[in-house]
């Protein structure tokens, strides 16, 4: 029973974790970032097994980062900034093609970072949508503007099929578990800027170090 409760998604929870992500010095705490993603995985899972191939990939990436956090060099992984510095200083990142470091923290996080942009665009569309808007359309528009550019044809195809079976807007709002639609819209209004801030900080860091195309 307790386990079931644990699995229950609430958008508020995700919001809270993303709030805790950013330090006063505008650094991003990896632990909270990963927690935020765990919440999103719960959400995906509550949408049905069709999304399993997506959540599996996210879980896999979360695990890679958690292993670094809990590993012997965990103290280097406190923030995304310290992780990038440590991995670059110690040549732990494959810069042009995958080789000896296929699962660096930096390249793994980059995949989640790109997906965060999709999330930001999608949630903003959802926030400003009307009752008759189709989540599948909102979702694929956001996807085409962001993540799709980084995915090969076969993944884009699979994603497109998954979008088609997304629940409609009312059911979607229900799964978010924050109350009536106007409250969902209000919470989204709070969530989008937070996600956007985390995204922007990370994007600047990766741009500064020329890491946006890590293989
Ligand atoms: C609410 C509906 C969910 C729609 C999710 C939209 C994104 C669809 C992406 C589908 C791709 C999943 C398959 C895995 C692809 C991986 O190849 C890539 C690259 O990783 P690499 O192969 O280089 O290690 N993985 C990703 O791009 C990460 C994708 C994460 C998608 C996160 C969705 C978040 C859902 C949040 C729910 C609100």
Give helix and strand order, one letter per element, not per position. HHHHHHHHHH
Task: Show unreliable segments.
Answer: 1-5
CATH architecture descriptor text: Orthogonal Bundle
Query: What best-fitting shape do the alpha-carbon axes yield?
Result: globular
| Mean pLDDT metric | 94
- CATH level-1 class: Mainly Alpha
Strand tally: 0
| Number of discrete helical segments | 10
Tell me roughly what share of residues is in helical segments: 55-70%
What binds here, in terms of ligands, is: ligand 1PZ
Give the strand content.
under 5%
Distance between the amino and carboxyl termini: 42 Å
**CATH fold assignment:** Glycolipid transfer protein, GLTP
Structural class: mainly alpha
Domain count: the total is: 1
What name goes with the CATH superfamily?
Glycolipid transfer protein
Tell me the radius of gyration: 17 Å
Largest sheet: none
List its salient traits.
215 residues, mainly alpha, Glycolipid transfer protein, GLTP, 10 helices, 0% strand, globular, binds ligand 1PZ, lipid transport, ceramide 1-phosphate transfer activity, GLTP_sf, nucleus, membrane
What does this structure look like?
With 215 residues, the protein is an all-alpha fold. 67% of the residues lie in helices and 0% in strands. It has a single domain, classed as Glycolipid transfer protein, GLTP (Orthogonal Bundle). It has ten helices and no strands. It is globular, with a radius of gyration of 17 Å. It binds ligand 1PZ. Residues 40, 43-44, 51, 53-54, 57-58, 111, 115, 118-119, 139, 143, 147, 155, 159, 166 line the site of ligand 1PZ.
């Amino acid at each position: 029973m307790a386990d079931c409760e644990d699995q229950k998604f609430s958008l508020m929870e995700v919001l809270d974790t993303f709030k805790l992500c950013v330090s006063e010095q505008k650094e991003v705490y990896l632990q909270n970032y990963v927690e935020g993603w765990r919440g999103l995985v719960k959400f995906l899972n509550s949408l049905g097994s069709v999304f399993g191939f997506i959540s599996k990939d996210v879980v896999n990436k979360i695990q890679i980062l958690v292993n670094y956090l809990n590993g012997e060099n965990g103290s280097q992984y406190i923030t995304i900034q310290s992780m990038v510095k440590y991995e670059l200083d110690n040549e732990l990142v494959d810069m042009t093609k995958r080789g000896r470091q296929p699962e660096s923290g930096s390249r793994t996080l980059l995949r989640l970072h790109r997906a965060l942009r999709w999330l930001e665009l999608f949630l903003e569309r959802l926030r400003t949508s009307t009752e008759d808007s189709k989540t599948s359309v909102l979702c694929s528009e956001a996807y085409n503007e962001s993540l799709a550019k980084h995915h090969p044809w076969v993944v884009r195809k699979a994603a497109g099929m998954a979008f088609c079976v997304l629940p409609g807007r009312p059911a979607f709002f229900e799964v978010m578990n924050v109350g009536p639609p106007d409250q969902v819209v209000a919470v989204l209004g709070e969530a989008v800027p937070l996600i956007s801030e985390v995204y922007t900080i990370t994007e600047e860091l990766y741009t500064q170090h020329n890491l946006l195309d890590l293989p």
